[in-house]
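Q: Here's a chain of 569 amino acids. Please give me its 3D structure as C-alpha coordinates.
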Amino acid sequence: MTNNTQSSEQTDGFHLVIDALKHNDIDTIFGLVGIPITDLARLAQAEGMRFIGFRHEQHAGNAAAIAGYMTQKPGICLTVSAPGFLNGLTALANATTNCFPMILISGSSEREIVDLQQGDYEEMDQLNAAKPYAKASYRINKAEDIGIGVARAIRAAVSGRPGGVYLDLPAQLLAQVIDAEHGRKSLVKVVDPVPRQIPAPDSVQRALDLLKGAKKPLILLGKGAAYAQADADIRALVEESGIPYLPMSMAKGLLPDTHEQSASAARSYVLAEADVVVLVGARLNWLLAHGKGKTWGVPKQFIQIDISPTEIDSNVAIAAPLIGDIGSCVSALLTGIRSGGHGKPDAAWTGAIAERKDKNLTKMASLLNQNPSPMNFHSALRAIRDVLKTRPDINVVNEGANTLDFARSIIDMYEPRKRFDSGTWGIMGIGMGYAIGAAVTSGKPVVAIEGDSAFGFSGMELETICRYELPVVTIVFNNNGVYRGTDVNPTGGKDVAPTVFVKNARYDKMIEAFGGVGYHVTNPEEMTKALTEAIASGKPTLINAVIDETAGTESGRLTNLNPSTAGKK
Protein backbone atom coordinates (compact mmCIF):
# COMPACT_ATOMS: atom_id res chain seq x y z
CA MET A 1 0.00 0.00 0.00
CA THR A 2 1.48 3.32 -1.04
CA ASN A 3 1.05 6.60 0.84
CA ASN A 4 0.30 9.43 -1.62
CA THR A 5 0.07 12.07 1.09
CA GLN A 6 2.75 14.70 0.59
CA SER A 7 4.08 16.76 3.49
CA SER A 8 2.89 20.38 3.40
CA GLU A 9 5.27 23.29 2.94
CA GLN A 10 6.40 24.76 6.27
CA THR A 11 7.79 28.02 7.55
CA ASP A 12 9.19 29.19 10.86
CA GLY A 13 9.31 32.21 13.17
CA PHE A 14 12.44 33.61 11.54
CA HIS A 15 10.78 33.80 8.12
CA LEU A 16 7.46 35.06 9.47
CA VAL A 17 9.07 38.04 11.23
CA ILE A 18 10.75 39.02 7.96
CA ASP A 19 7.57 38.41 5.96
CA ALA A 20 5.53 40.53 8.40
CA LEU A 21 7.95 43.47 8.09
CA LYS A 22 8.14 43.26 4.30
CA HIS A 23 4.35 42.93 4.11
CA ASN A 24 4.24 46.41 5.66
CA ASP A 25 6.83 47.92 3.30
CA ILE A 26 9.66 47.94 5.82
CA ASP A 27 12.90 47.21 3.99
CA THR A 28 15.75 48.12 6.37
CA ILE A 29 16.91 46.82 9.74
CA PHE A 30 19.58 48.47 11.90
CA GLY A 31 21.14 46.22 14.51
CA LEU A 32 23.85 44.01 15.90
CA VAL A 33 23.79 40.23 15.59
CA GLY A 34 24.31 37.49 18.16
CA ILE A 35 22.30 34.86 20.05
CA PRO A 36 19.42 34.36 19.24
CA ILE A 37 18.91 36.68 16.25
CA THR A 38 21.92 36.03 13.99
CA ASP A 39 19.96 33.90 11.53
CA LEU A 40 17.16 36.46 11.52
CA ALA A 41 19.61 39.06 10.19
CA ARG A 42 21.06 36.63 7.65
CA LEU A 43 17.64 35.64 6.36
CA ALA A 44 16.46 39.26 6.22
CA GLN A 45 19.36 40.07 3.92
CA ALA A 46 18.73 36.95 1.84
CA GLU A 47 15.09 38.00 1.45
CA GLY A 48 16.08 41.38 0.05
CA MET A 49 15.97 43.53 3.16
CA ARG A 50 18.90 45.77 3.99
CA PHE A 51 20.65 44.97 7.27
CA ILE A 52 23.02 47.64 8.60
CA GLY A 53 25.23 46.09 11.29
CA PHE A 54 26.60 48.35 14.04
CA ARG A 55 29.27 48.07 16.71
CA HIS A 56 26.92 49.05 19.55
CA GLU A 57 23.15 48.64 19.84
CA GLN A 58 22.52 52.17 21.12
CA HIS A 59 23.74 53.65 17.86
CA ALA A 60 21.73 51.17 15.80
CA GLY A 61 18.69 52.29 17.77
CA ASN A 62 19.47 55.94 17.13
CA ALA A 63 19.77 55.21 13.42
CA ALA A 64 16.37 53.50 13.45
CA ALA A 65 14.83 56.40 15.34
CA ILE A 66 16.05 59.06 12.94
CA ALA A 67 14.94 56.92 10.00
CA GLY A 68 11.47 56.89 11.56
CA TYR A 69 11.51 60.66 11.94
CA MET A 70 12.50 61.13 8.31
CA THR A 71 10.00 58.68 6.78
CA GLN A 72 7.00 58.52 9.18
CA LYS A 73 7.48 54.72 9.13
CA PRO A 74 8.88 52.98 12.21
CA GLY A 75 12.62 52.45 12.04
CA ILE A 76 13.59 48.92 13.09
CA CYS A 77 16.41 48.11 15.51
CA LEU A 78 17.29 44.45 16.12
CA THR A 79 19.33 43.38 19.16
CA VAL A 80 20.31 40.33 21.14
CA SER A 81 18.94 39.68 24.61
CA ALA A 82 19.70 41.28 27.99
CA PRO A 83 22.81 43.53 27.62
CA GLY A 84 22.11 44.08 23.92
CA PHE A 85 18.49 44.90 24.72
CA LEU A 86 19.56 47.31 27.45
CA ASN A 87 21.95 49.06 25.07
CA GLY A 88 19.08 49.50 22.62
CA LEU A 89 16.75 50.64 25.38
CA THR A 90 18.56 53.97 25.71
CA ALA A 91 17.80 54.73 22.08
CA LEU A 92 14.22 53.52 22.52
CA ALA A 93 13.68 55.89 25.45
CA ASN A 94 15.18 58.74 23.44
CA ALA A 95 12.87 57.95 20.52
CA THR A 96 9.83 57.95 22.79
CA THR A 97 10.86 61.25 24.38
CA ASN A 98 11.40 62.85 20.97
CA CYS A 99 8.27 61.29 19.42
CA PHE A 100 10.18 59.34 16.76
CA PRO A 101 8.49 56.14 15.52
CA MET A 102 10.81 53.21 16.19
CA ILE A 103 10.49 49.52 17.02
CA LEU A 104 13.15 47.82 19.13
CA ILE A 105 13.03 44.08 18.41
CA SER A 106 15.06 41.95 20.80
CA GLY A 107 15.57 38.24 21.16
CA SER A 108 15.03 37.02 24.71
CA SER A 109 15.52 34.00 26.95
CA GLU A 110 12.89 31.30 27.41
CA ARG A 111 9.89 32.51 29.39
CA GLU A 112 9.56 29.53 31.69
CA ILE A 113 13.17 29.89 32.84
CA VAL A 114 13.02 33.67 33.19
CA ASP A 115 9.76 33.57 35.14
CA LEU A 116 11.16 31.07 37.62
CA GLN A 117 14.50 32.92 37.70
CA GLN A 118 16.40 29.73 37.02
CA GLY A 119 19.44 31.43 35.51
CA ASP A 120 19.13 31.19 31.73
CA TYR A 121 21.70 32.61 29.31
CA GLU A 122 21.30 36.41 29.44
CA GLU A 123 18.18 36.02 31.54
CA MET A 124 16.05 39.15 31.89
CA ASP A 125 12.39 40.12 31.99
CA GLN A 126 12.86 42.46 29.03
CA LEU A 127 9.18 43.19 28.43
CA ASN A 128 8.63 44.76 31.84
CA ALA A 129 12.01 46.48 31.76
CA ALA A 130 11.00 48.26 28.54
CA LYS A 131 7.53 49.40 29.58
CA PRO A 132 8.47 52.65 31.39
CA TYR A 133 10.54 53.81 28.42
CA ALA A 134 8.33 52.83 25.49
CA LYS A 135 4.98 53.95 24.14
CA ALA A 136 3.98 50.27 24.06
CA SER A 137 5.57 46.88 24.69
CA TYR A 138 4.53 43.50 23.30
CA ARG A 139 5.77 39.90 23.46
CA ILE A 140 4.99 37.29 20.81
CA ASN A 141 4.93 33.69 22.03
CA LYS A 142 3.35 31.84 19.11
CA ALA A 143 4.48 31.87 15.49
CA GLU A 144 0.91 32.31 14.25
CA ASP A 145 0.75 35.60 16.23
CA ILE A 146 3.80 37.17 14.58
CA GLY A 147 1.72 38.89 11.90
CA ILE A 148 -0.65 40.53 14.35
CA GLY A 149 2.17 41.33 16.78
CA VAL A 150 4.22 43.17 14.18
CA ALA A 151 1.07 45.00 13.00
CA ARG A 152 0.28 46.15 16.55
CA ALA A 153 3.85 47.37 17.01
CA ILE A 154 3.75 49.37 13.75
CA ARG A 155 0.41 50.99 14.54
CA ALA A 156 1.47 51.86 18.08
CA ALA A 157 4.72 53.42 16.87
CA VAL A 158 3.19 55.76 14.27
CA SER A 159 -0.37 56.51 15.40
CA GLY A 160 -1.29 59.50 17.52
CA ARG A 161 1.85 60.87 19.10
CA PRO A 162 4.63 58.69 17.61
CA GLY A 163 7.12 56.92 19.82
CA GLY A 164 9.21 53.90 20.58
CA VAL A 165 7.74 50.39 20.77
CA TYR A 166 9.38 47.28 22.17
CA LEU A 167 8.73 43.87 20.57
CA ASP A 168 10.01 40.84 22.49
CA LEU A 169 10.84 37.66 20.55
CA PRO A 170 11.74 34.68 22.76
CA ALA A 171 14.32 32.37 21.19
CA GLN A 172 11.91 29.44 20.99
CA LEU A 173 9.45 31.57 18.97
CA LEU A 174 11.95 32.06 16.15
CA ALA A 175 12.45 28.32 15.74
CA GLN A 176 8.74 27.43 15.87
CA VAL A 177 7.52 25.70 12.70
CA ILE A 178 4.01 26.07 11.26
CA ASP A 179 2.26 25.37 7.96
CA ALA A 180 3.45 27.92 5.39
CA GLU A 181 -0.04 28.65 4.04
CA HIS A 182 -1.31 29.23 7.56
CA GLY A 183 1.67 31.53 8.09
CA ARG A 184 0.91 33.55 4.98
CA LYS A 185 -2.71 33.99 6.02
CA SER A 186 -1.60 35.18 9.46
CA LEU A 187 0.22 38.22 8.07
CA VAL A 188 -1.48 41.58 8.63
CA LYS A 189 -1.17 44.65 6.41
CA VAL A 190 -1.67 47.73 8.59
CA VAL A 191 -4.40 49.89 7.02
CA ASP A 192 -4.40 53.65 7.63
CA PRO A 193 -2.06 53.52 10.63
CA VAL A 194 -2.09 57.32 10.99
CA PRO A 195 -5.68 58.45 10.38
CA ARG A 196 -6.28 62.17 10.16
CA GLN A 197 -7.58 63.72 13.37
CA ILE A 198 -9.60 66.76 12.39
CA PRO A 199 -9.77 69.61 14.92
CA ALA A 200 -13.19 70.64 16.21
CA PRO A 201 -14.59 73.67 14.34
CA ASP A 202 -15.20 75.62 17.55
CA SER A 203 -11.57 75.13 18.64
CA VAL A 204 -10.39 76.43 15.26
CA GLN A 205 -12.62 79.50 15.59
CA ARG A 206 -11.38 80.12 19.14
CA ALA A 207 -7.81 80.16 17.86
CA LEU A 208 -8.67 82.46 14.96
CA ASP A 209 -10.46 84.88 17.29
CA LEU A 210 -7.43 84.97 19.57
CA LEU A 211 -5.12 85.65 16.65
CA LYS A 212 -7.40 88.35 15.32
CA GLY A 213 -7.01 90.34 18.53
CA ALA A 214 -3.23 89.86 18.77
CA LYS A 215 -0.94 92.86 18.50
CA LYS A 216 2.34 90.93 18.69
CA PRO A 217 1.70 87.38 17.42
CA LEU A 218 4.41 84.75 17.04
CA ILE A 219 4.41 81.30 15.42
CA LEU A 220 6.74 78.81 17.10
CA LEU A 221 7.58 75.71 15.04
CA GLY A 222 8.72 72.52 16.79
CA LYS A 223 10.18 69.36 15.31
CA GLY A 224 6.67 67.92 15.33
CA ALA A 225 5.87 70.44 12.60
CA ALA A 226 8.77 69.10 10.54
CA TYR A 227 7.77 65.48 11.21
CA ALA A 228 4.23 66.18 9.96
CA GLN A 229 5.43 66.79 6.38
CA ALA A 230 2.77 69.50 5.98
CA ASP A 231 5.49 71.75 4.61
CA ALA A 232 3.49 73.69 2.02
CA ASP A 233 0.62 74.56 4.38
CA ILE A 234 2.98 75.54 7.21
CA ARG A 235 4.84 77.87 4.88
CA ALA A 236 1.56 79.30 3.60
CA LEU A 237 0.33 79.86 7.18
CA VAL A 238 3.44 81.86 8.00
CA GLU A 239 3.57 83.87 4.79
CA GLU A 240 -0.15 84.58 4.34
CA SER A 241 -0.62 85.55 7.97
CA GLY A 242 2.50 87.71 7.98
CA ILE A 243 3.26 86.49 11.52
CA PRO A 244 6.95 86.27 12.53
CA TYR A 245 8.05 82.71 13.26
CA LEU A 246 10.67 81.07 15.41
CA PRO A 247 11.85 77.52 14.58
CA MET A 248 13.15 75.13 17.18
CA SER A 249 16.44 73.56 16.10
CA MET A 250 15.07 70.51 14.26
CA ALA A 251 12.32 72.63 12.65
CA LYS A 252 14.95 74.76 10.93
CA GLY A 253 14.50 74.55 7.17
CA LEU A 254 10.70 74.31 7.14
CA LEU A 255 11.18 77.77 5.77
CA PRO A 256 14.71 78.86 4.84
CA ASP A 257 16.54 80.30 7.83
CA THR A 258 17.17 83.39 5.70
CA HIS A 259 13.40 84.03 5.35
CA GLU A 260 12.44 87.62 6.14
CA GLN A 261 9.83 86.50 8.71
CA SER A 262 12.29 84.38 10.67
CA ALA A 263 12.78 85.77 14.15
CA SER A 264 15.66 83.47 15.10
CA ALA A 265 18.12 86.34 15.32
CA ALA A 266 15.77 88.11 17.75
CA ARG A 267 14.77 85.02 19.76
CA SER A 268 14.98 86.52 23.25
CA TYR A 269 13.04 89.60 22.20
CA VAL A 270 10.11 87.84 20.53
CA LEU A 271 9.70 85.27 23.31
CA ALA A 272 9.56 88.03 25.89
CA GLU A 273 7.36 90.47 23.96
CA ALA A 274 4.84 88.37 21.99
CA ASP A 275 1.25 88.53 23.25
CA VAL A 276 -0.16 85.50 21.38
CA VAL A 277 2.04 82.50 20.54
CA VAL A 278 0.99 79.71 18.17
CA LEU A 279 2.77 76.48 19.10
CA VAL A 280 2.94 74.13 16.11
CA GLY A 281 4.28 70.73 17.14
CA ALA A 282 6.29 72.26 19.98
CA ARG A 283 6.05 71.48 23.68
CA LEU A 284 6.55 73.95 26.50
CA ASN A 285 9.30 71.89 28.12
CA TRP A 286 12.72 72.91 29.42
CA LEU A 287 13.84 73.95 25.93
CA LEU A 288 11.25 76.74 26.13
CA ALA A 289 11.64 77.49 29.84
CA HIS A 290 8.33 75.67 30.47
CA GLY A 291 6.44 78.65 29.04
CA LYS A 292 7.06 80.88 32.02
CA GLY A 293 9.58 83.01 33.87
CA LYS A 294 11.70 85.86 32.56
CA THR A 295 12.26 84.13 29.21
CA TRP A 296 8.60 84.77 28.39
CA GLY A 297 8.43 88.31 29.76
CA VAL A 298 5.00 89.91 29.46
CA PRO A 299 1.84 87.84 30.02
CA LYS A 300 0.76 86.05 26.87
CA GLN A 301 -1.80 83.64 25.54
CA PHE A 302 -1.03 80.38 23.77
CA ILE A 303 -2.62 78.58 20.85
CA GLN A 304 -1.27 75.04 20.93
CA ILE A 305 -1.55 72.55 18.09
CA ASP A 306 -0.92 69.02 19.36
CA ILE A 307 -2.31 65.57 18.70
CA SER A 308 -2.23 64.68 22.39
CA PRO A 309 -4.88 66.36 24.61
CA THR A 310 -2.83 65.62 27.73
CA GLU A 311 -0.06 67.90 26.49
CA ILE A 312 -2.34 70.90 26.92
CA ASP A 313 -1.89 72.89 30.16
CA SER A 314 1.19 70.78 31.01
CA ASN A 315 3.06 73.85 32.25
CA VAL A 316 0.90 76.92 31.70
CA ALA A 317 -2.72 77.56 30.78
CA ILE A 318 -3.41 77.17 27.05
CA ALA A 319 -6.09 79.63 25.92
CA ALA A 320 -6.85 77.93 22.60
CA PRO A 321 -6.00 74.22 22.38
CA LEU A 322 -6.21 72.83 18.87
CA ILE A 323 -6.26 69.04 19.10
CA GLY A 324 -5.60 67.03 15.97
CA ASP A 325 -2.89 66.12 13.51
CA ILE A 326 -0.69 69.05 12.56
CA GLY A 327 -1.53 68.95 8.86
CA SER A 328 -5.28 69.13 9.50
CA CYS A 329 -4.96 71.83 12.18
CA VAL A 330 -2.68 74.05 10.10
CA SER A 331 -4.96 73.60 7.09
CA ALA A 332 -7.97 74.65 9.15
CA LEU A 333 -6.22 77.78 10.44
CA LEU A 334 -5.07 78.61 6.94
CA THR A 335 -8.62 78.34 5.61
CA GLY A 336 -9.84 80.70 8.32
CA ILE A 337 -7.11 83.23 7.62
CA ARG A 338 -7.82 83.12 3.89
CA SER A 339 -11.49 83.81 4.58
CA GLY A 340 -10.55 87.12 6.12
CA GLY A 341 -10.56 86.13 9.74
CA HIS A 342 -7.15 87.62 10.51
CA GLY A 343 -5.30 90.84 9.80
CA LYS A 344 -1.59 91.39 9.41
CA PRO A 345 0.53 91.98 12.54
CA ASP A 346 1.20 95.55 13.59
CA ALA A 347 4.00 97.18 11.63
CA ALA A 348 5.52 98.36 14.90
CA TRP A 349 5.92 94.72 15.98
CA THR A 350 7.49 93.47 12.77
CA GLY A 351 9.63 96.61 12.55
CA ALA A 352 10.98 96.16 16.07
CA ILE A 353 11.87 92.55 15.27
CA ALA A 354 13.64 93.57 12.07
CA GLU A 355 15.65 96.21 13.94
CA ARG A 356 16.86 93.71 16.52
CA LYS A 357 17.60 91.10 13.88
CA ASP A 358 19.79 93.55 11.97
CA LYS A 359 21.64 94.51 15.14
CA ASN A 360 22.24 90.92 16.22
CA LEU A 361 23.18 89.70 12.74
CA THR A 362 25.68 92.53 12.41
CA LYS A 363 27.21 91.58 15.74
CA MET A 364 27.36 87.92 14.70
CA ALA A 365 28.94 88.83 11.35
CA SER A 366 31.76 90.67 13.11
CA LEU A 367 32.48 87.56 15.20
CA LEU A 368 32.34 85.28 12.18
CA ASN A 369 34.67 87.48 10.16
CA GLN A 370 37.45 87.30 12.73
CA ASN A 371 40.25 84.87 11.98
CA PRO A 372 42.00 83.98 15.24
CA SER A 373 44.79 81.45 15.42
CA PRO A 374 44.08 78.77 16.52
CA MET A 375 40.51 78.67 15.25
CA ASN A 376 37.57 79.21 17.54
CA PHE A 377 34.02 77.95 17.08
CA HIS A 378 32.94 80.99 15.09
CA SER A 379 35.70 80.95 12.51
CA ALA A 380 35.49 77.20 11.94
CA LEU A 381 31.70 77.26 11.64
CA ARG A 382 31.84 80.20 9.23
CA ALA A 383 33.82 78.04 6.83
CA ILE A 384 31.40 75.12 7.26
CA ARG A 385 28.39 77.41 6.82
CA ASP A 386 29.68 78.80 3.54
CA VAL A 387 30.28 75.34 2.09
CA LEU A 388 26.93 73.94 3.22
CA LYS A 389 25.13 76.97 1.77
CA THR A 390 25.95 75.56 -1.68
CA ARG A 391 24.43 72.15 -0.81
CA PRO A 392 21.03 72.65 0.88
CA ASP A 393 20.21 68.97 0.25
CA ILE A 394 22.86 67.76 2.69
CA ASN A 395 21.78 66.30 6.04
CA VAL A 396 23.39 67.94 9.07
CA VAL A 397 23.90 66.11 12.36
CA ASN A 398 24.99 68.24 15.30
CA GLU A 399 25.86 67.48 18.93
CA GLY A 400 28.09 68.74 21.67
CA ALA A 401 27.83 71.53 24.21
CA ASN A 402 29.41 74.61 22.64
CA THR A 403 29.58 72.92 19.23
CA LEU A 404 25.80 72.42 19.30
CA ASP A 405 25.04 75.90 20.63
CA PHE A 406 27.13 77.78 18.09
CA ALA A 407 26.31 75.60 15.09
CA ARG A 408 22.57 75.84 15.71
CA SER A 409 22.68 79.62 15.31
CA ILE A 410 25.39 79.85 12.62
CA ILE A 411 24.57 77.02 10.18
CA ASP A 412 21.53 77.99 8.11
CA MET A 413 19.12 75.31 6.92
CA TYR A 414 17.09 75.66 3.74
CA GLU A 415 15.10 72.41 3.51
CA PRO A 416 12.99 70.55 6.11
CA ARG A 417 14.10 67.45 7.99
CA LYS A 418 17.76 68.03 7.20
CA ARG A 419 18.96 68.92 10.70
CA PHE A 420 19.23 66.28 13.44
CA ASP A 421 20.54 67.08 16.90
CA SER A 422 20.41 66.29 20.60
CA GLY A 423 16.68 66.96 20.76
CA THR A 424 14.28 67.00 23.68
CA TRP A 425 16.60 65.26 26.12
CA GLY A 426 19.63 67.31 25.07
CA ILE A 427 21.74 64.14 25.15
CA MET A 428 25.15 63.39 23.72
CA GLY A 429 25.91 60.24 21.75
CA ILE A 430 23.40 60.49 18.91
CA GLY A 431 26.00 61.57 16.33
CA MET A 432 27.16 58.57 14.35
CA GLY A 433 23.87 56.69 14.74
CA TYR A 434 21.88 59.61 13.36
CA ALA A 435 24.47 60.14 10.61
CA ILE A 436 24.27 56.51 9.48
CA GLY A 437 20.48 56.45 9.69
CA ALA A 438 20.18 59.67 7.68
CA ALA A 439 22.64 58.52 5.02
CA VAL A 440 21.01 55.11 4.58
CA THR A 441 17.47 56.51 4.58
CA SER A 442 17.98 59.50 2.28
CA GLY A 443 20.84 58.37 0.06
CA LYS A 444 22.17 61.93 0.49
CA PRO A 445 25.46 63.08 2.02
CA VAL A 446 25.66 63.78 5.74
CA VAL A 447 27.87 66.26 7.55
CA ALA A 448 28.12 65.50 11.28
CA ILE A 449 29.39 68.48 13.30
CA GLU A 450 30.64 67.01 16.58
CA GLY A 451 32.21 68.19 19.76
CA ASP A 452 35.17 65.99 20.67
CA SER A 453 33.43 64.81 23.83
CA ALA A 454 30.16 64.03 22.02
CA PHE A 455 32.00 62.18 19.27
CA GLY A 456 33.54 59.86 21.84
CA PHE A 457 30.19 58.23 22.62
CA SER A 458 29.79 56.74 19.14
CA GLY A 459 33.19 57.12 17.46
CA MET A 460 33.67 53.40 16.84
CA GLU A 461 30.82 53.58 14.34
CA LEU A 462 33.34 55.14 11.95
CA GLU A 463 34.06 51.53 11.04
CA THR A 464 30.37 51.02 10.22
CA ILE A 465 30.39 54.13 8.02
CA CYS A 466 33.44 52.83 6.17
CA ARG A 467 32.09 49.27 5.90
CA TYR A 468 28.96 50.45 4.13
CA GLU A 469 30.83 53.18 2.20
CA LEU A 470 28.43 55.87 3.37
CA PRO A 471 28.86 59.50 2.27
CA VAL A 472 29.31 60.79 5.81
CA VAL A 473 31.72 63.60 6.67
CA THR A 474 32.42 63.83 10.40
CA ILE A 475 33.91 67.07 11.68
CA VAL A 476 35.36 66.81 15.20
CA PHE A 477 35.82 70.14 16.98
CA ASN A 478 38.93 69.24 18.93
CA ASN A 479 39.68 71.52 21.88
CA ASN A 480 41.26 68.78 24.02
CA GLY A 481 38.42 68.19 26.43
CA VAL A 482 34.87 68.42 27.67
CA TYR A 483 33.82 72.07 27.20
CA ARG A 484 37.52 73.05 26.90
CA GLY A 485 40.91 71.52 27.56
CA THR A 486 42.42 73.97 30.03
CA ASP A 487 41.39 72.56 33.41
CA VAL A 488 44.16 71.29 35.71
CA ASN A 489 44.31 68.77 38.51
CA PRO A 490 44.37 70.96 41.66
CA THR A 491 46.43 68.37 43.55
CA GLY A 492 49.27 68.54 41.04
CA GLY A 493 49.01 64.77 40.64
CA LYS A 494 49.60 62.78 37.45
CA ASP A 495 45.92 62.33 36.57
CA VAL A 496 44.54 65.03 34.31
CA ALA A 497 41.50 67.08 35.32
CA PRO A 498 38.10 65.35 34.86
CA THR A 499 37.29 67.39 31.75
CA VAL A 500 40.62 67.00 29.92
CA PHE A 501 41.41 64.58 27.08
CA VAL A 502 44.69 63.53 25.44
CA LYS A 503 46.23 66.71 24.11
CA ASN A 504 46.42 67.19 20.34
CA ALA A 505 44.62 63.91 19.57
CA ARG A 506 44.49 62.97 15.89
CA TYR A 507 40.92 61.77 15.34
CA ASP A 508 41.56 61.80 11.60
CA LYS A 509 43.84 58.78 12.02
CA MET A 510 40.94 56.73 13.39
CA ILE A 511 39.01 56.74 10.13
CA GLU A 512 42.17 56.05 8.11
CA ALA A 513 42.50 52.79 10.04
CA PHE A 514 39.21 51.65 8.47
CA GLY A 515 39.97 52.83 4.95
CA GLY A 516 38.34 56.25 5.15
CA VAL A 517 39.85 59.65 4.45
CA GLY A 518 41.25 61.85 7.22
CA TYR A 519 42.00 65.58 7.25
CA HIS A 520 43.79 67.60 9.92
CA VAL A 521 42.83 71.29 9.71
CA THR A 522 43.98 74.25 11.75
CA ASN A 523 42.44 77.26 9.97
CA PRO A 524 39.24 78.16 8.06
CA GLU A 525 40.92 77.93 4.65
CA GLU A 526 41.97 74.34 5.32
CA MET A 527 38.46 73.60 6.62
CA THR A 528 36.86 74.94 3.45
CA LYS A 529 39.16 72.89 1.23
CA ALA A 530 38.77 69.68 3.24
CA LEU A 531 34.97 69.88 3.49
CA THR A 532 34.52 70.74 -0.17
CA GLU A 533 36.73 67.82 -1.25
CA ALA A 534 35.10 65.41 1.20
CA ILE A 535 31.54 66.16 0.05
CA ALA A 536 32.53 65.92 -3.61
CA SER A 537 34.25 62.57 -3.08
CA GLY A 538 31.28 60.90 -1.37
CA LYS A 539 33.77 58.90 0.71
CA PRO A 540 33.69 58.33 4.47
CA THR A 541 35.73 61.21 5.84
CA LEU A 542 36.75 62.67 9.18
CA ILE A 543 38.03 66.22 9.59
CA ASN A 544 39.98 66.81 12.80
CA ALA A 545 39.39 70.53 13.40
CA VAL A 546 41.87 71.97 15.89
CA ILE A 547 40.08 74.54 18.04
CA ASP A 548 41.58 76.86 20.63
CA GLU A 549 41.44 74.84 23.84
CA THR A 550 40.40 77.94 25.76
CA ALA A 551 37.31 78.29 23.54
CA GLY A 552 34.06 77.10 25.02
CA THR A 553 32.20 77.60 28.27
CA GLU A 554 31.16 75.19 30.98
CA SER A 555 28.02 73.30 29.85
CA GLY A 556 27.54 75.68 26.93
CA ARG A 557 24.30 77.65 27.19
CA LEU A 558 23.08 75.27 29.91
CA THR A 559 25.50 76.57 32.54
CA ASN A 560 22.55 77.47 34.77
CA LEU A 561 21.56 73.78 34.89
CA ASN A 562 24.97 72.63 36.10
CA PRO A 563 25.22 73.12 39.88
CA SER A 564 28.63 73.87 41.34
CA THR A 565 29.80 73.34 44.87
CA ALA A 566 29.87 76.23 47.29
CA GLY A 567 31.13 74.14 50.18
CA LYS A 568 34.45 74.70 51.93
CA LYS A 569 36.54 72.07 53.68
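Q: Can you summarize the key feature?
A: The chain is about 40% helix and 15% strand.
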